[in-house]
Every structure is written in C-alpha cells, then in structure tokens.
Design goal:
- By secondary structure, the protein is an alpha/beta fold.
- The strands form three sheets. A nine-stranded mixed sheet has the order 9-8-7-10-6-1-4-5-11, with helices on both faces.
- Helix 4 packs parallel to helix 7.
- The N and C termini lie far apart (56 Å).
C-alpha cells in the first residue's frame, strides 16, 4: 500500500494559497503515480469543502498541539498514525512548524528529506527533484531512489495541473501530540497585521529611501488600498523603524507573492534572496543605477515621495 500525506497551512480557518497549490499537485501526483489515498494533516479545524479532493483525499487529520513542539517524545502519536496509514511519501510547504515535525518523522521513518522543492517528477529508478539553492540564485536537480521520501516545497513553486473539484465526503479525525513536561507555554504573542507576510499575494516593501519612520504612512496606505502586506529591508528593521517580523531577505522572511512592489530599496543581494520567488517585481527608486532594476519586471525611476502619492490617488479614483 502506497499512501501520500500532505501537511497544509491554515490561517484563521482558511487554507493558505500555497497549500491550495500543493493539494492540486498532490491530487494529480496521486493519480499518475499509483497512490491509493491522500491523508491531509493540519494544525487547525477546516471545512471539508476547502480541500481540493481530486477524489483521492480520504481523510483530514487535525493535529492538536497543547504545548511547544520541540521534543520528539510528544510527537509519537503522529508517528504511529503515519505508520498505521501506510504513508510512504509526505509533501508540505516549508514553515518552522512543519520543518520541526518533518525532521522528527524523517529520523523516525528513516526516509530522506529534500528541501526547497520547485518541481517533482517520477523517473525510471526513483524520483527527481528540482530544488532552489544558494538563496534562490541557482537550481539543483537531485534524485531519490525507492518509494519513500519527504518533500518540503518552496512557497515559490507553481503548478500546471487541474484544480481540485472539492468534496464534502472527506472524513475528519484528530491526533493529539501530548504535553512535554520539560517545557511550558507561558504566553502566545501573535504577529500583528491584517495579512500575514509569508502568505500575502501582494507585498509592498520599503527601505531607507523613506528617510524616517514617520514617513511610513504612505506605504501603509498603499498596502491597504492594494490589500497587501507591508515589508522592509534589513537596515530598516535594524534601525527599529519597523518590526523585525517585516524584514524580508536572506536573514529574514522569504516571500513568494504574485506581486512585490519595492519602494526606495536599492536591491542588495541579501534582500533579493528573500524576494526572488515573487511572480512579478516592480521597483521604484530615484537612482537609475540601483541594482534592483536588473531584477525587476517593471521599474519606475523617481522619488517615492512623488510616485507613491500619485499611484495611491490613481488607485482610489478607480
């Protein structure tokens, strides 16, 4: 029996866009590679009609986490569930939580893990992966022999397969991880902001070109008008102009939105490493020699304090 597991990301009861794409891929993958069933695991409740079933999804399992996930012993119920269901392949989109759980499952099941996956295909003697390396500056093709593996997909991966039709017949179950007596969760501090940065379809990023944190109002107004999340470069977060969870780059959050609007950011290689998964990049900078223009799909040479108000007024008039 060869079954497939997909770990999904749920925000406020809604399926993340990257997880929707992964389920579309998984449904097509199961149909063409002989998987008997797909088991979907998540960390919150979700309605069955949000799951793109492709008729292969058999069950949704809610993983209940009463405390901190940082000790192997508390994850044994999940391991038992995976073994009992005969799961040999696990797919997920990278996140801190799923990386922690996947590392435990990989060690316990003795299966290889391939990270930053952009493409996966079956070959005659195993499975071939195309993955991103060196912070997105190069691609590597690697192969896993045998039927078992764990694949951590990059948020930048795309799919070219039919979208799931949805189903209300998917059964639901729960797995409780138990409490680690050595650790105690004292308080939870959720990140502020109406749109989580890693999941945003549109991101407005700003840098030192704004000169002072008091000038950030136009960035937030533009993001609100576009339904976007706000981001910043590392120097901005280092200066405490913006919260550190908005820092996008090699040492910060890595994003893959449909549109990234970079305002007053020169485009240092460390920043590019965090945004090169974006589908489209628009750069606004008053320096025509700014490195970011070499990586932009569209560019505007101009002062952000002139361009952004005009852009905002144009959006509001439509």
């Amino acid at each position: 029996m060869k079954n497939l597991a997909v770990f999904i990301d749920i925000k406020n009861g809604q399926l993340a866009d990257s997880s929707k794409r992964l389920l579309d891929f998984a449904g097509d993958w199961a149909g063409t590679n002989g998987a008997e069933a797909i088991y979907v695991y998540g960390f919150d409740h979700i309605s069955s009609d949000q799951l793109n079933s492709h008729s292969f999804i058999k069950q949704y399992i809610h993983i209940k986490i009463p405390g901190l996930v940082n000790h192997g012993q508390i994850m044994s119920p999940l391991l038992d569930d995976v073994k009992q269901k005969g799961i040999s392949q696990i797919l997920y989109v990278k996140s801190l939580l799923t990386d922690t759980i996947a590392s435990f499952l990989a060690k316990s099941l003795s299966v290889p893990v391939v990270s930053n996956v952009l493409k996966l295909q079956k070959v005659s003697d195993g499975y071939q992966f195309t993955k991103s390396i060196f912070s997105g500056k190069a691609l590597l093709t690697t192969q896993v022999n045998g039927d078992s593996f764990i694949a951590a997909f990059s948020k930048a991966f795309s799919v070219d397969v039919p979208q799931g039709t949805g189903s209300s017949s998917i059964s639901q179950a729960e797995v409780s991880l138990g409490t680690d007596s050595q650790n105690k969760l004292i308080e939870n501090y959720p990140l502020t902001g109406s749109i989580p940065l890693p999941d945003a379809a549109i991101v407005v990023g700003a840098g030192r070109g704004f000169k002072d944190p008091s000038n950030w109002g136009i960035v937030e107004d533009l993001a609100k008008e576009l339904g976007a999340a706000t981001a910043c470069s590392k120097p901005v977060s280092d200066l405490n102009w913006r919260p550190h969870h908005e820092h996008v780059g090699q040492t910060g959050v890595k994003i893959a939105p449909k549109l990234y609007l970079a305002c007053g950011i020169s485009g240092a290689i460390q920043h590019l490493a965090g945004v090169n998964g974006s589908r489209k990049i628009v750069v606004i900078n008053n320096d025509p020699e700014a490195p970011f223009f070499k990586h932009a799909d569209y560019g505007i040479v101009g002062d952000v304090f002139d361009v952004l108000p005009r852009l905002l007024n144009k959006l509001k008039s439509h």
